[in-house]
């Protein structure tokens, strides 16, 4: 596996890596030379397929499972990661997330709590629990969204979680900079994944293209390349930032 960016000798954890952006990111990191821990919420064939894809191309990958919706999920995942990596993790991509399209009137307390549990609480405590193995030169990449800065359909609760992620990035970067840990976020627009099935319809495609400068629907690989950049030494002087990777959406 070859790439212009070298992550040889580094170990990465990608949460929510069985499909979509997470899957593309895990494969891209492995292509750049990293050993990748492929996380899924539970044992799944999709996660096994990602591991097999990486190994078949000559890369290194292992699967780890934990339900990040559970309050103790990040703690359990961190234990499993440390048992596999020993005393060093170089790259953490907190990609796992859920979405819920609903009006303000139709959003339930359960919806709201689930969104914040997976999208905000899980990455916060995963970073906390992995601090002992994140050291000088490590990179943490969180997943934000276009919805954090612009109104996009009925996503107010989801957007609030991504606004919280942008805030966490700045605070984490400030607090962890003395340890040589960089913290950034990627903010995609609409990407053709299971989370954005509407983009696969004619109406959804027209809506997406109508708000973008670049006139095509993004694919997971479009986002994965930016994650690899932030994880690499090429971005060694970038921290506390949210990088928009949205095709020029809502300019």
Automatic annotation (TrEMBL):
Which domain of life, per UniProt? Bacteria
**A Pfam family it matches:** adh_short_C2
Give all residue intervals belonging to the Ketoreductase domain.
10-189
Report the GO molecular function annotations: oxidoreductase activity
Checking SUPFAM superfamilies in the record gives: NAD(P)-binding Rossmann-fold domains
Gene3D superfamilies named among the record's database cross-references: NAD(P)-binding Rossmann-like Domain
Matching SMART domains = PKS_KR
Keywords carried by this UniProt record: Oxidoreductase
Q: Which family does it belong to?
A: Belongs to the short-chain dehydrogenases/reductases (SDR) family.
Q: Which PANTHER family match?
A: OXIDOREDUCTASE, SHORT-CHAIN DEHYDROGENASE/REDUCTASE FAMILY (AFU_ORTHOLOGUE AFUA_5G02870), SHORT-CHAIN DEHYDROGENASE_REDUCTASE FAMILY PROTEIN
Instruction: Please report the name of this protein according to its UniProt entry.
Output: Short-chain dehydrogenase/reductase SDR
The organism's lineage is:
Bacteria, Pseudomonadati, Pseudomonadota, Betaproteobacteria, Burkholderiales
């Amino acid at each position: 596996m070859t790439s212009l960016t070298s992550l040889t000798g580094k170990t990465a954890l990608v949460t929510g890596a069985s499909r979509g952006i997470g899957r593309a990111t895990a494969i891209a990191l492995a292509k750049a030379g990293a050993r990748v821990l492929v996380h899924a919420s539970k044992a799944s064939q999709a996660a096994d397929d990602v591991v097999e894809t990486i190994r078949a191309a000559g890369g290194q990958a292992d699967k780890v499972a934990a339900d990040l919706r559970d309050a103790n999920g990040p703690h359990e995942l961190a234990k499993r990661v440390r048992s596999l990596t020993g005393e060093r993790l170089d790259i953490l991509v907190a990609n796992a997330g859920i979405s819920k399209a609903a009006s303000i009137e139709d959003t339930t307390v359960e919806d709201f709590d689930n969104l914040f549990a997976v999208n905000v609480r899980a990455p916060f405590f995963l970073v906390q629990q992995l601090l002992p193995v994140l050291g000088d030169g490590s990179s943490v990449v969180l997943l934000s969204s276009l919805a954090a800065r612009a109104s996009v359909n009925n996503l107010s609760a989801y957007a609030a979680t991504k606004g919280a992620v942008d805030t966490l990035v700045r605070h984490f970067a400030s607090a962890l900079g003395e340890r040589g840990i960089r913290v950034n976020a990627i903010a995609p627009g609409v990407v053709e994944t299971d989370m954005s099935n509407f983009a696969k319809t004619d109406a959804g495609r027209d809506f997406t293209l109508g708000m973008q400068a670049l006139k095509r629907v993004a694919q997971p690989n479009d986002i994965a390349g930016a994650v690899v950049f932030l994880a690499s030494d090429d971005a060694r002087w970038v921290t506390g930032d949210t990088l928009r990777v949205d095709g020029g959406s809502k300019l």
